[in-house]
Design goal:
The structure holds 3 protein chains of 3 kinds. Chain A is an all-alpha fold. In chain A, about 70% of the residues lie in helices and about 0% in strands. Classes of the chains: A mainly alpha, B alpha/beta, C alpha/beta.
């Protein structure tokens, strides 16, 4: 039986013009700078992906007679020490570097975010333990840990990036925990408990969506760090192994032969710098949006 | 109020603050958003003027404007604010700052947040004395202890060395009052000072303010949403709704014979102890957001008595409905197109 | 609102809590101190009845509400809800009981998830307990919104688009979605504008008349409580100091604190008011620090009629229908309730500007 309330007045109606679109997405993309950077990044990824279609050369097409050639109409960026077309390598290297970055950050997210959410929401013994683990990891210089793991398990992009991911995880843990803690103070979390939500639902449906924005910020910054880490490890010979090509291996190769040809060092380094710059800018833009997103 | 101050308040006491047709708003990409629409009020020495309103009424913005402290996006788009005849809006910001804390003081709702946790309360009370009055450290400290006694803090000398976090909410509010009164201002603006306090503490703070006001002949602008508080300490009251003053006059008059449907609605919404009402009074609907005010009367969408042709097409002005008698020459003004026709029930 | 004078004794008890206690520990390893947020609280609510729990900040009333629902774990005491011992239930059994007892929170702006639409929030309890299909839930959300006086169109909006009063209606719609028999209302109108409070309170009254739901109404606003509740429990420093039918407690208060509370409420009545000789108001506004209370009465430092015994001996609630915890009370009444006198001349304003 419905109770009639204030029967003489019609029920309150909302003002026209409400929209359903996600508030988070709108807020994050509010600034033009963010949108521009994101567009450039997407373009870069697309180009890297379709790269093989753009060049007539294969990644491992060696031309030992034509090695270390300067840029020409045949090879727009010249050739490396094996005579491979550098432009082709750039596409391949970017692909691998981006993949490596994804692997590292994905590892970091999977390790850090769920633990952080739970620690922020629940606290207690679990929180204490995970805080300690996180702080310990933070105190280790990232590359050292990566070196240790790669040394123990052998080289290759995958183990190296997993190691980097482990060292990046504490950042995500802290961000998730901090935001989860402050979000959990809101009464809608208590309300969710009072209607009988399980912890899983509370974390997944109520805490996480409110945490997404700061995590995306962290994601951007971490991606840049992961790219540099991969490049560094590959440069040291501990990352990608031949025949795989990454921006790091390209830099190593060019560096080794720098006295013979000066040019080949530039493409990989510029590209690394560009990618890191783009992700940093994206992170800045997202962070500004998150910070001012609360205020109208 | 003592008999002498009553007399003086009646017979042309000094006008401390006069706000005239003040309009405030802010600029948005799609246009100007008004927050205050032609707000006028006066505070004289020795009287307590209440500014009552709910959320979205503009009462806090009015008080901030009066102190020259409008937060950044808000701008004054019209009108004047005068303190003792001097136009605050025309003044140099440096001169306005000289007035603040010395001649016009303000106290706020959340006292603990307004106090610096790193300094003792004695130091914080002494600060305005040293900055504005040039007192020495020792002198200022003595006066600080005197002020703590004035605001009825027991063991004042000992307490002067305490830090804000060691005090209760009521104590912090008393300290804030002491700081505000340090340089013997003429006008005190109190923005919801007791809203966050327990009701037993609120009663003491109100009594304290009344006592101090009598002793120092202070003018007080008291902003609140609590009608009970208004009835207790305000001599005159102005009711605000959606950026406008809709009714103003002697407090008792306002309660006994409200002339504006909003005032009447507010009064009916207060459940009173000792009265057996069947249902709770309320005003249906919600306050219109700034920038979405209805044309004509801002209240007409929730008013029980709107009339097409009179309430909706043109701005309604604040008119005098009762000039007051010879013993009480304080006019009662209303902003209502139908004020002469409506008879609204008040408190008996 | 017609209030039956019977209360819990006449109708069956929906909830009975006895000896509820919650301790919080402060300090470090060497100097651990226990502070009672709630100590030995007894409460009972009958079917279709409203029990108000009043008190000022720090009284423990919000904690009591949460202890009853076991949103916070009690350290001691029993809670029996519809015959079930709530404290003995396992986590999952407790979760299954939740639809029967709901809560409405104080701050309407933060009690709804900003990332969920109104309709989703209202129907969430049904989703969580797998009641009905998605289509059923959508329909029911619309019905519930109408039941609380909102256009079903609001279902598509997000909380940030609604006003405080509208949000609180949504919170109520969510709370009644599972047809609970008890709703704990934690200061549901404190954060709302004065003119909106009546709308929400009337809504709650109408819902109670229509469905027979019981309320535990937590508030610091006595004037609201008088018109709304059948019975009222007054709390101070974690304990119930007086409890009984509202008309009794307000009409003839027996505990000095109840007296002080009633006297402190600002009045709109322009009768004679003798603020100076108000013996009911406490002399100091500081309550005893929790560590100082000890075994004695927590109110003793503010009480106008405290005696030596109050220092060492904490009073217990008397038995009967109107119960008081005070050594002074042995059946005799304390003070007369201050009532605004409507007839006497408005002395306060004579000759005023």
């Amino acid at each position: 039986m419905t109770a009639t309330i204030e029967a003489q007045r019609a029920p309150e109606a909302p003002l026209p013009g409400g929209r359903r679109r996600s508030r988070t997405a709108r807020m994050l993309l509010a600034e033009r700078r963010t949108r521009v950077v994101l567009a450039v990044l997407i373009a870069l990824v697309l180009v890297a992906l379709i790269g093989p279609l753009l060049t007539p050369y294969g990644t491992n097409e060696q031309d030992l007679l034509g090695r270390l050639q300067p840029p020409s109409s045949e090879h727009w960026l010249g050739t490396d020490s094996f005579g491979r077309d550098i432009l082709t390598l750039v596409f391949a290297g970017t692909r691998l570097s981006l993949f490596a970055g994804c692997l590292a950050v994905a590892t970091a997210v999977l390790l850090g975010v769920p633990a952080g959410l739970l620690a922020g929401y629940r606290g207690g013994a679990f929180g204490v333990v995970s805080n300690t683990v996180s702080d310990t990891l933070l105190s280790l210089p990232p590359l050292i840990l990566a070196l240790a793991i790669v040394g123990a398990y052998g080289g290759g992009v995958v183990p190296a990036m997993l190691a980097v991911g482990v060292t990046l995880a504490p950042r995500f843990y802290r961000v998730s925990r901090g935001v989860a803690q402050s979000v959990s103070k809101n009464s809608f979390i208590e309300s969710a408990r009072s209607i009988g939500c399980t912890t899983g639902r509370i974390l997944g449906r109520h805490v996480f969506p409110n945490v997404v924005a700061p995590i995306l910020v962290q994601f951007s910054f971490s991606f840049g760090l992961a790219i540099i880490a991969e490049a560094s490890l590959s440069f040291l010979g501990l990352g990608a192994e031949p025949p795989a090509v990454s921006l790091g291996t390209m830099a190593r190769d060019a560096f080794t032969h720098i006295r013979e040809a000066a040019f080949p060092i530039f493409p990989p380094c510029i590209l690394i710098a560009l990618i890191v710059f783009l992700f940093s800018s994206l992170g800045d833009g997202l962070r500004d949006a998150v910070v001012s997103g609360g205020r109208r | 109020m003592t008999a002498e101050t009553q007399e003086r308040a009646v017979v042309g006491a000094a006008v401390l603050m006069r706000v005239r047709d003040l309009s405030v708003g802010y600029r948005r990409p799609h246009g100007w958003v008004p927050i205050l629409d032609s707000v006028s009020f006066t505070v004289r020495a020795g009287e307590v003027v209440g500014l009552v309103g709910e959320s979205g009424s503009g009462k806090t913005v009015s008080s901030l404007a009066a102190m020259g402290q409008l937060p950044r996006p808000l701008q004054v788009s019209g009108g004047a604010i005068e303190f003792e005849g001097r136009d605050l809006l025309a003044m140099d910001p440096k001169q306005v700052r000289k007035l603040r804390g010395v001649e016009v003081s303000m106290i706020f709702q959340d006292a603990l947040r307004c106090l610096n946790p790193a300094y003792t309360i004695g130091d914080q009370i002494a600060e305005p004395l040293r900055v504005h009055k040039g007192m020495s450290r020792a002198q200022a400290h003595e006066r600080a202890v005197e002020l703590l006694e004035l605001v009825e803090i027991p063991r004042a000398r000992e307490r002067a060395r305490a830090y804000p976090h060691q005090l209760s909410g009521g104590m912090c509010q008393r300290v804030m009052i002491a700081i505000a009164l340090a340089c013997s201002p003429k006008l005190l603006i109190a923005d919801e000072p007791t809203t966050a306090l327990d009701v037993t503490v609120q009663k003491q703070i109100l009594r304290l303010l009344t006592r101090i006001q009598n002793e120092m002949d202070l003018g007080i602008l008291f902003i609140t949403h609590d009608l009970g508080v208004v009835a207790e300490i305000c001599d005159r009251t102005a009711v605000m709704y959606a950026g406008q003053i809709v009714e103003e006059g002697p407090t008792e008059e306002l309660f006994r014979r409200p002339r504006h449907p909003y005032t009447h609605g507010l009064i009916s919404s207060v459940p009173r102890i000792g009265h057996e009402d069947r249902r709770f009074g309320s005003i249906p609907g919600s306050v219109p957001k700034a920038g979405h005010w209805p044309t004509g009367c801002h209240f007409r969408t929730r008013c029980p008595y709107p009339q097409a042709g009179r309430c909706d097409d043109r701005p309604i002005t604040l008119e005098v409905v009762d000039a007051g008698g010879p013993s009480r020459p304080v006019p009662h003004r209303v902003r209502c197109a139908r004020s002469d026709e409506l008879t609204l029930e008040g408190v008996t | 609102m017609s209030r039956p004078e019977g209360g819990a004794a006449a109708s069956e008890a929906v909830l009975t809590a006895i000896g509820l206690t919650k301790l919080y520990t402060t300090g470090r390893f060497g100097h651990r101190q226990s502070v009672h947020a709630v100590r030995g609280v007894d409460l009972a609510v009958g079917r279709g009845e409203t029990l108000a729990v009043v008190g000022e900040s720090g009284a423990g009333k919000s904690t009591v509400g949460r202890l009853i629902l076991r949103l916070i774990e009690p350290d001691d005491g029993t809670v029996e809800f519809e015959g079930v011992d709530v404290r003995r239930l396992s986590r999952s059994a407790l979760r299954r009981l939740r639809p029967r007892m709901q809560m409405v929170f104080q701050d309407p702006f933060s009690s709804l998830d900003p990332t969920m639409t109104i309709a989703d929030s209202v129907a969430e309890p049904l989703l969580v307990h797998k009641i009905g299909t998605a289509a059923d839930r959508r329909r029911r959300a619309g019905e519930l919104l109408e039941q609380v006086g909102l256009d079903p169109e609001f279902g598509e909006r997000f909380p940030r688009e609604l006003s405080g009063g509208q949000l609180q209606r949504v919170a109520i719609a969510r709370a009644i979605s599972t047809r609970p028999s008890l709703i704990v209302c934690d200061e549901p109108v404190a954060a709302l504008d004065l003119s909106i409070r009546g709308q929400i309170l009337n809504l709650l009254v109408d819902l109670q008349n229509a469905t027979g739901v019981s309320y535990i109404f937590i508030s610091h606003d006595l004037s609201v409580v008088e018109h709304f509740a059948h019975r009222v429990a007054v709390m101070y420093a974690g304990q119930v100091v007086e409890v009984g039918p509202t008309s009794d407690v307000f009409g003839s208060p027996r505990h000095p604190y109840t007296n002080a509370l009633l006297a402190a409420v600002p009045r709109i009545g322009f009768g004679r008011r003798d603020t100076e000789t108000d013996g009911n108001t406490p002399a100091r506004d500081e309550r005893l620090a929790p560590a100082e209370v000890g075994a004695g009465c927590a109110y003793r430092n503010r009480c106008p009629v405290a005696m030596a015994r109050c220092e060492t001996d904490g009073p217990r609630l008397t038995s009967g229908f109107h119960r008081v915890a005070c050594h002074r009370v042995g059946g005799k009444q304390l003070g007369t309730p201050p009532v605004a006198s409507p007839v006497l001349p408005a002395e306060r304003f004579a000759g005023r500007s």
